[in-house]
Design a protein that fits this description.
This protein is α+β, with helices and mostly antiparallel strands. It contains two helices and four strands, in the order H-E-E-E-H-E.
């Protein structure tokens, strides 16, 4: 969990390049958004929020309420000092 086992600043700068929002509600760190797209919840945000948002997304897609073909992440900014 990102509340108790926070990601160290050095790791954030090495593995992630952007801040983002998963489904517009869950704050995440994003690495390599144009490639493999690594995602982790931001520090102080419970890990289960990402799981709950993913579950809701899959349920809405199964009901045909949304068209879903992968992760939906909005990039909100670059991480200063991150390795590019």
């Amino acid at each position: 969990m990102a509340i108790f086992q926070r990601i160290p600043r050095e790791t954030i700068h090495k593995q992630f390049t952007h801040y983002g929002l998963f489904l517009g509600i869950v704050p995440v760190y994003v690495g390599d958004p144009d490639g493999e797209c690594r995602v982790a919840v931001r520090n102080w945000v419970p890990e289960w929020t990402l799981d709950a948002a993913q579950f809701l997304l899959e349920q809405f897609a199964a009901l045909g309420l949304i068209d879903y073909d992968g992760f939906m992440i909005k990039l909100t900014g670059k991480i200063e000092g991150a390795a590019q």
